[in-house]
Amino acid sequence: MKHRIFSGARPTGRLHIGNYLGALQNWVKLQDEYDCVYCIVDIHALTSMEDTSNLQANIHEMLLDWLAVGLDPQKSILFVQSHVPEVTELNTLLGMITPLSWLLRVPTFKDKVKLQKENVNYGLVGYPVLMASDIVLYKADTVPVGEDQLPHLELTREIVRRFNCLFGETLVEPKAKLTDFPNVPGLDGKGKMSKQAGNHIEIAMTEKETADKIKTAFTDPARLRRSDPGHPEICNIYKLLGQFDAEGRNGIDEKCRNAEIGCVECKNLLIKAINDAMRPIRERRKELEANPKALEGILTEGAERARVIAQDTMRLVRKNMKLL
Ligand code: TRP
Questions:
Q1: Is the confidence at residue 216, as pLDDT, over 80?
Q2: Does 213 fall in a domain?
Q3: What's the 241 CA to ligand 1 centre distance in angstroms?
């Protein structure tokens, strides 16, 4: 039997090229080797969201990006977390065997407490239990994640071991599949690309929007004039160019250091590289956008397929916990 992958992402709306290089490209590749389940985790999003007025639009925009980059509903199950309500039941049940002390020491929880002091809700501390519920409900044995999610995965494994020890072999203990996330720098030269920082390029931007955004990007701050020697190792444009057109970047290092090439020329190379790479994806996105009914159908069918697995797991969980 094929191994099963489960991964999820909160519906943050339109994704950027950092999401693409970091996670999506990898998810697309995994489809050929694994039985994949990819979930838009809308309930998780609620742990940090009081105003839900954009939630449906964000789910829609993210799904468009997923499909445009090549997540394929023929190969994988694509669905929205809340469409399969069994996950909330499992979350409640796993909550009964998860010591609060385990949850209070999770690093992402401590970060969130600082970040949203005014909204430290019960669901927030339970975030990793809901994530464990996602993974085990769909019997996934492999979970592709970035390094920041490793503590959550470790906790999932501990919950599974505890459950199986208390109620007999029931749940599959998953392994993290650490994705080699390229460090995608933002356009402001201050750390990684993120939507929050506004230093990003959306997959769905037009070619002109992409160009305008890159034209105003920071480069090497020490390079004030065209004649100043540059330092490509600290230049975000140089790094991004390597991720989109490694070959085209050959020789630029030396030219930059000798001030034989200017930042404007480098930016033009990057604009072309990104627009070339995104063109087919953007075209597909446009086609998908024109047919919202089809998108709805994909999610309905995804939830139906997901639910079959979920109900099977829940029967066993209830039986082994003596709820039946
Ligand atoms: N916590 C993950 C994130 O913020 C999202 C997520 C929810 C997830 N459930 C999951 C990831 C299950 C992997 C598996 O990125």
A1: yes
A2: yes
A3: 29
